[in-house]
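Note to self: the last two entries modelled the partners one at a time, which told us nothing about the interface. This time every component goes in together.
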Amino acid sequence: MTTPTAATQLRWVQGMEKPNPKHTMPWQELLLRRLLGLFENVPTGEGTKAAEDALEFPDTMAYYYIGRCVPSFGHNVVASRPVTDRSLTTPFDTGALVDSRGLIRTSPVLDAAGRVALVREFSYSGRDYEPHLDGWLEAAFAHPAEYITGARPSAHSVEAFLLEECTGDARIWTWEARIRATDYASPPTETVLVLFAAGTRERYLDWVLDTELLTAGERLTHVRDVYGYSEETIDPVPDMLEYLQKELTP
Amino acid sequence: MTREELVGYIGAPLGNEASLTAFDAVTRSAGGFRRYPAAGGEPQEVSASEVEYALPVPSELSAQWRRGHVVWFAGRTFAVRGTANSAVRAFLTDWALTDQGHRMSTGTPRELLGLRDTVARELAMQVSNYLFDELERRHDQAADVFELFLAVENTPSTRRFLTAALYYFQTRRIEEYEFTRERAALSRAFDSAEAFDVQFGKHREWLATGRSETSISELGVTRQGAVSAFEAQARALIWVAASASNDEHRSPLFSESSWIRHVPALRTERPWSKHKYLVHGPRQVETHVEAAEKIEFFIQETL
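The predicted structure of the combined assembly is written out below.
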């Protein structure tokens, strides 16, 4: 049996999406689709779509932050562990690399093709990212749990990144996992914990029991599952951070 | 020093159209941006890049915001349903109307909790009345009030599950009833489904049998101000008749004219004219006369 390391203990996290007036999916459906791995119809933000095009991703992707909550608020937040080996993981937010504001500075300076090549070079398949993440956590922080809080590392995992010259926030060094945004027969991640803001879990379940996306049997199973892995809290994201830190602290 | 001002909120209107909920308030001051969590707790710093997640608030809200306030939100479906309900309309009319038809206000999380509790209690009573009172039995009305109730009572309270189970049971929605029963236990509102069964049985029995004995004084008190005392008494009398009629088959027994014929004291006042109550029952004339006698006696006693 493999000994758990920080990287294997760090959960994959999905939180609040940036508001988009063009989107019409209710928050309950977005959450349901995340929990069940039904990503086909989840709308992609304009910024994300532009980034995927710029980086020549062949497919639309669903994204997770590894071990971090971005943004630092939201009315529900999901922590899960991967069960698929068809994921790709990168030691930075790929969208930040192609952001028009130039949030990430590199040496040498990269053109569009160079950015595509960099993302390909640092996209680890399946669980291959874990030793790289462990090595970096060990080298860049006094304790791996500092990473979870967004503390600045002493060095970036990608040598070409000029950390002191980058102008973006912690997403620059936050590890990103991504999977193809399709409907999976069984969820590609196993949900470990969902935190709901007080007063929203019952409303989510009211919606679940009415949705035609599931059969009656599936609805009941989902309701049981949600009660099993979720809690209501006053402020979900700070509480999720606390949970993630505890996972790394023996 | 710059005064702290409300600049937006963090939350999702999409999916909350039928909800009464609270969103985090986002404020700006000389010290930067802060977030007041919807359900309470300490304000948190928000980075400039994260402010992109906030949505704008109507200007009225910025004027009324005070430190510690969060943003209260009533979705447009809730707001429309609420206009037909006195308990909801009473607080919602003062809230700012947005371009999308939602209504918003500001206040502390604690104040919203208090408001929810008061309104949920009233709505739960209305649901029971619409489901159980012979004279108020209106399943279409019950459906609207029930939706409002679920939105207001949004935490896993015993009241939420008992009222939901009652609604589904009385409207013969067995699958939803079973779901509710299971949720009552899974949410830990009840120790087990069996514990829920016991309490639900008592609750239902109480509603089915207790009202005719207790409602006369209750109606007189709780509905004063809404209807005249005489109307309240008359409605209570009709209640007595209803309990005597023991309806299951919905064959007409009492009509408005028969009330007039059998209850002389009501001939001139006709308090029920606003409430077209038809009382039905299988026992025909005997029950009719018996109920009328009870009514006449009661009128003599009370008037």
